[in-house]
C-alpha cells in the first residue's frame, strides 16, 4: 500500500493532477486504475490489467505490431510530456532548454540510476545504444595486437565499431559463433567466450540479449570466468534489449561498461539511450565530443554533444515513472508469457521451427520463427497479407526467419490472431515427404 501511494504521488503528483498538468483526464484515470493493482499481485495472465496498459498507449488498431524489438511506442503520457516540453522550449529555446529544463537533467539521471541499481555519477544520458557503445568502443585505449572477443551474432553497429579499430589501429577481433541457437547450456555459453581469451585479450564484448533471436546470455558468469582467466580483461555489455525488459541491476553483471537504448523496452522518446561506465573507469575513457579535459573523472563529459533536444531527454523521466508503476519483473513475466503463448502453440506445426528458447533463463520477449522452405521475406509478407501482422524479417549468419516481438500493450487476442495466421500459413504449405 505504501509503495502504491508513493508511486501514485510520483506519477500523478500529491493531490492528483499536479505532476501531469498536460495529461488528459482519461490518461489520469487510466493511470489511477493501473496503480490500483497491488504490486505483489501476479498479473501475468490478467487481461483486465493489461487492457488498462493497452489503453495507456496509442497503438494502431489496424495493424498488429509485432516489431517492438526495433523500437517501442511511447505511452500517451510520455507523448504528452514531450509535446509539453517542446511547446515550452519553443517559447524561448535558450532560456527554457538551457536554464529551466537543463536543471532537471540530474533528476532524470537519478531516476535512471535507481532503475539501473547504480550510482547517478555512472550514468550518461545520450541518444541511443549505438552512441553509448561507440563511445566505449572508440574511446578505450588499445594498442596494435590487443585482442577483443565478441560474437558473430552481435549487433552490426557494434561489429562495425570494433572492425573500424581493427582496420585503423591493428587490434585483433576473435569471434564466438553462437551456433546452433537457441543454446540452453549455460556452461557452454560461458566456455565459448573463455576459450577465446588469451594473454593479449583486453576486451570481451557481450550482447546481453541477442537481438535476432532473443537469446539471453549469462553475462555475470561470462564476466567472472573471462576475468578469472585473464584479470586484465574488461567486459563491455550491450544491454539494448535487456534494460527495462529483464529485471537486473547493472553492477550485478560484473561488467565494466554498458550501453542501452531507452526507446526500446523503457518506451522513452525515440532517440534516447544510456551509457554506464563503472566509476573507476570514467577518467580513462576518451569522449567522442571532447571537452576542455577529456580525461576528467566526470560522467557528464560524455554529454557534451552540443545542441540537441532537451524535450526528448526530459520526457525520459515520465517513461521511468510509467515503467515503475508496472515494475520490471511484471513486464518480464508478461512478455515471456506472450512469447511462449505463441511458440507453444506453433511448435508442432509441420515445417515450423524456432531459434528461440522457451526458458526464461535464456529468453524474453523476442521470438525468431520460420518454416522450412520459406524465406524470411516470404513469411514476413504472408503474415502481413493474411493478418496485417507486422514482423521483422531476419537473415543473418546462422539465423533465418521472422522476428515476432509483442510488447506490454499487446492483448492476448493479438497473440491468438498471430497463432491462427501462422497455422493458416502452415496448412497452405506443401508437406514434405
Ligand atoms: C543488440 C542491439 N544493440 C544495439 C542496438 C542499437 O540500438 P540503437 O538503435 O538504440 O542505437 C540494437 C538495435 O536494435 C540492438 O538490437
TrEMBL record:
<dbReference type="Pfam" id="PF00266">
    <property type="entry name" value="Aminotran_5"/>
</dbReference>
<keyword id="KW-0808">Transferase</keyword>
<feature type="domain" description="Aminotransferase class V">
    <location>
        <begin position="66"/>
        <end position="387"/>
    </location>
</feature>
<dbReference type="InterPro" id="IPR015424">
    <property type="entry name" value="PyrdxlP-dep_Trfase"/>
</dbReference>
<keyword id="KW-0032">Aminotransferase</keyword>
<dbReference type="GO" id="GO:0008483">
    <property type="term" value="F:transaminase activity"/>
</dbReference>
<protein>
    <submittedName>
        <fullName>Aminotransferase class V-fold PLP-dependent enzyme</fullName>
    </submittedName>
</protein>
<dbReference type="InterPro" id="IPR015422">
    <property type="entry name" value="PyrdxlP-dep_Trfase_small"/>
</dbReference>
<dbReference type="InterPro" id="IPR015421">
    <property type="entry name" value="PyrdxlP-dep_Trfase_major"/>
</dbReference>
<dbReference type="InterPro" id="IPR000192">
    <property type="entry name" value="Aminotrans_V_dom"/>
</dbReference>
<keyword id="KW-0663">Pyridoxal phosphate</keyword>
